[in-house]
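Much of the work behind modern protein science is quiet bookkeeping, done one molecule at a time. Below is the pair of lines this work produces for a single protein:

***
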Amino acid sequence: MRMSRKRWFALFAAGMGLGAAGTEGAPRAAPFLTPPPLPDSSAPVPSPPSAPPAPQPQPTPYPPSAYPYGYPSYPPPPPNNSTYPPTYPPTYPPTYPPTYPPTYPPTYPPPAYPPSSPYPYGRSTGWDPEVQERRKAAFHSHDGFYLNLAAGAVFARNTASDAATPIEANGVGLAFTGALGGAIARNVILCVRYQHSDAEAHYKDAARGYDQENASAETDFLGSALVYYFEDTNVLLAGAIGMSWFTVRDEFNFQVVDSRARLGAALDLGKEWWISPNWGMGLVARGSYGTAKDRSASAAAWTNLGLSLLFSATYN
């Protein structure tokens, strides 16, 4: 028999109310879920976490250095996490200070300098006045054997006094000097000197009728000289005294004036520069004076004045 829709709806509502009343106070059923799969016993079991790595030992620092000029630049400092001391071939590094002949195998680290150990490039022994004085005396100093040679130009003025008429022979020419001796004290030289000058002069003698343009006036000097050198600047001051004589020759090399030797002197002022441990070269200015007795005129006496500029070479 067919029921109406209202009747079916009332029966459904009544059934739902009875179901809710029967389940009140009871635990609610869990929803329907698919259970998880069981673990596979054949899979590897993960291991527990490992312990942290142990700290690495730090390299041993270098020992304090006793070198006066710092630690040697090799061997280089070892890098981190390396052994100390580093290993090297048997021939490296050399020992400090080096030994001759070297010893093998070398020691590491090198030993400190003892006070009396040899240095690779020598060791200063300090200032010794006696040693320095001996070195100074043997180098660039004026002592011992002395040899001097000089040559240059000269201006000569030669006149005869006490003659009836003026007699003169003036001109410019060449001069030469040679000296030989030795040191009598430091920077003090005593020597024997010979000087010669030959000037192309104008010779005039009205009494004997000479008036020649190309005459040769020669002056010679032989005597002893004392030379002093200023050590710091090597400037020299010298004086000489001895005998001087004078000769005049005409253009045909005929001797027209002859004289007897008389007193002569010279004064030098110069400067030399060392070119080797014993040789010095320089310039010397010289003024000379001499007198000579004319043999042809008993009343006439020659006076010789000369001014020279010489290039000088000295061994001492």
